[in-house]
Design goal:
CATH topology of the largest domain: Helix Hairpins
CATH class of the largest domain: Mainly Alpha
Number of strands: 2
Number of helices: 6
Order of helices and strands: HHHHHEEH
Length: 135
């Protein structure tokens, strides 16, 4: 399909591709292309009318909201109290350690989330069970 588009968008390639066609065949192709272009223009015009009608309705509704003293934010439920609640959210604290192990004589802990630390993995492979390291 890409080659098809390249040929039709380049005058020299199009001329070379249609060299063997008769004038009657070229006129037939021209009629078909004209029909396709007209159909596309009509479809685009209909789509544009739909978009304009939708925008007009939205503007009308927005005007009604303003006349009644309602802001779009209030309509969507974004009042000041919900905005304040969103601001007041605090970060969750760090997860408590779930496993404890010894690495070079230094005690280390792991929450059980993410990748298992390599020293713990090595010790676990040697001893067998992670339950031994539960806190």
């Amino acid at each position: 399909m890409n080659d098809f588009i390249k040929i039709f968008l380049n005058a020299r390639s199009l001329r070379a591709a249609t060299k063997e066609l008769s004038v009657e065949q070229l006129e037939e192709v021209l009629i078909k292309f004209t029909t396709i272009v007209d159909d596309r223009k009509e479809a685009d015009a209909v789509e544009l009318e739909k978009q304009q009608a939708k925008q007009a309705k939205m503007n009308e509704i927005l005007l009604q909201l303003k006349e009644n003293g309602i802001s779009p934010e209030e309509l969507m439920g974004l009042t000041d109290s919900t905005a304040e609640k969103a601001k007041n959210k605090t970060k969750r604290g760090p997860r408590p350690a779930k496993y404890a192990y010894d690495f070079n004589g230094e005690p280390k802990t792991w929450t059980g989330q993410g990748r298992m630390p390599l020293p713990l993995q090595e010790v676990m492979n040697a001893k067998g069970s992670i339950e031994e390291f539960l806190i």
